[in-house]
Write a sequence for this structure.
């Protein structure tokens, strides 16, 4: 069974950093695209970053470009999201996703349950 499990969220002060992890299991993800998304209360889910499993093809939303970095470690079946210079508007539930075809990602792709990131002012 395919499963994506996020971790690393928490409460951080504005300007601080967090590193999120997404551990993928249950399948070979060698040809997959891995993405990070977030959803704040009352807002739609927002694309953050995407990378191919082997790395090297990262793309970012303008809102996080220059602050967030997506990376992958295929040996550990893990995708990371390094978040620096966090802002209160970054507060959201962050989820990872795996798609054999994406981007774009759809609800038919594999999704984790998410991890809460709260940035205080």
């Amino acid at each position: 069974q395919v499963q994506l499990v996020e971790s690393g969220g928490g409460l951080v002060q504005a300007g601080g950093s967090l590193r999120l992890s997404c551990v993928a299991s249950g399948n070979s993800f060698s040809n997959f695209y891995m993405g990070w998304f977030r959803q704040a209360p009352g807002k739609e889910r927002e694309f953050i970053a995407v990378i191919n499993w082997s790395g090297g093809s990262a793309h970012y939303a303008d809102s996080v470009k220059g602050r967030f970095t997506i990376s992958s470690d295929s040996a550990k079946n893990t995708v990371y999201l390094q978040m620096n210079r966090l802002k209160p508007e970054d507060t959201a539930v962050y989820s990872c996703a795996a798609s054999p075809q994406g981007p774009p990602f759809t609800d038919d792709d594999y999704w984790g349950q998410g991890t809460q990131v709260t940035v205080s002012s």
Q: What stands out?
A: The CA atoms of residues 72 and 79 lie 4 Å apart.
